[in-house]
Amino acid sequence: MSEISLPSVIALSPVEQPPDTTVRLPGSKSITNRALLCAALAEGESTLSGVLFADDTRAMLGAAAALGAQVTADEAAATVTVRGSDPREASRPVSVYANQSGTTARFVLPALALRTARGVLDGDAQLRARPFGPLVEALRSLGARVEEPAEAGRLPLAVTGPVHGGRVPLPGHLSSQFLSGLLMAGPLMRDGLAVELTSPLVSVPYVTMTAAVMAAFGVQADGLGVAPGRYRATEYAIEPDASAASYFLAAAAITGGRITVAGLGTGSLQGDVRFADVLERMGARVSRSAAGITVTGGGQLRGVDVDMADISDTAQTLAAVAVHADGPTRVRGIGFIREKETDRLAAVVTELRRAGIDAEEHDDGFTIRPGRPAPTRFDTYGDHRMAMSLSLLSLRSPGIEIDNPRCVAKTYPGFFADLSRVTARA
Ligand SMILES: O=C(O)C1=C[C@@H](OP(=O)(O)O)[C@@H](O)[C@H](O)C1
Ligand SMILES: C=C(OP(=O)(O)O)C(=O)O
């Protein structure tokens, strides 16, 4: 994890008055990591702007270089230039360290499998505990040799290609990242790629996003398949991160304030903008324009019953909002988030109960009943989204502390600074 200057425990105070402000958030992690990979595989030099600089995207910057791209980053300007290369021409073995980044690892493994030289992929203990089996099986059936020196279906993995492509069965119920990773490598496979899902796909909007970023780099994919071709270098502007936006939109709903997230417009590529729809169902006012999303809180929030299989990175955010509603909130469709940075269903329920909130875990989600959180030091389980979501409980309740807040470096190193700016007295 990168060194960000945060204490080992952070104490948060309630807002003194509801915020009324506009926030400008860092770039989307998901789009940054797709654009970096497409640029690394493209002919020519791409310039990316609005780039997120965080642990997950630094992992992809390293991976792009390992794949043979020349990468120049300007963090202050949030830009990266990438001179791509053809991985099929590479002859030297490489290794990629994905740290904690699921997207980096699942997107890069198929790209490594395009190469005839051996590529080793590893990550930290958290990523080593997450599943890779479906991707291993898919790459084998496409013609790669995959070694699993530790445990079957877990990092570290070593892959030697080239994959020839063609038809491949793939389960969809664990993660969409396997499909996105295969699709992005697909055009460089001799026969292209046609994926046949063997179980229902979760996180569907992320696959739509994959096809949209690929299209920006000149390759048309239909969501399950792609023909042989090459990416073309381009200038690409990355939107602000919609999952990060959920914390601020939720803060407006919880405090009865008004917060606009600039740059996340109606044309957003990110499914997580739909978190605002859930807040609307709970009674917050939402206005959307080409320039951004505004949430205005005020009245009493209502509990909701909602399937979050498309937007599961915002489920923990919703749990924090649900504490402030007038009736129970039931979240469904997200059993697969037990395999993320931590078992997110168990973690969110355990921590809310620690604060005296009535929370119940189900196979596919959770139920949260409203209550007043007691002063609590929350455990984050090394999960950035636990840290950011549980912070929201401090907005209206005193005595909230977050243990190991530095885990936010995975996707949003400036989170606590931004939160305190938004909630500070005007
Ligand atoms: O493709 C992506 O950029 C992502 C897909 C989602 O993962 P799953 O498909 O594993 O649910 C999401 O949780 C993750 O933060 C980013
Ligand atoms: C699940 C997440 O990340 P990833 O799968 O990319 O590690 C996340 O950012 O919440």
From TrEMBL:
Residues 21-419 form the Enolpyruvate transferase domain. One of its GO terms (molecular function) is 3-phosphoshikimate 1-carboxyvinyltransferase activity. It catalyses: 3-phosphoshikimate + phosphoenolpyruvate = 5-O-(1-carboxyvinyl)-3-phosphoshikimate + phosphate. Keywords: Amino-acid biosynthesis, Aromatic amino acid biosynthesis, Cytoplasm, Transferase. It comes from the Bacteria. It is found in: Cytoplasm. The active site is at D313 (proton acceptor). Its EC number is 2.5.1.19. PROSITE patterns: EPSP_SYNTHASE_2 (PS00885). GO terms for biological process: amino acid biosynthetic process; aromatic amino acid family biosynthetic process; chorismate biosynthetic process. Phosphoenolpyruvate binds at K29, G102, R130, Q177, R344, R385, K410. Monomer. Catalyzes the transfer of the enolpyruvyl moiety of phosphoenolpyruvate (PEP) to the 5-hydroxyl of shikimate-3-phosphate (S3P) to produce enolpyruvyl shikimate-3-phosphate and inorganic phosphate. Belongs to the EPSP synthase family. This is 3-phosphoshikimate 1-carboxyvinyltransferase. It comes from Catellatospora methionotrophica. The gene is aroA_2.
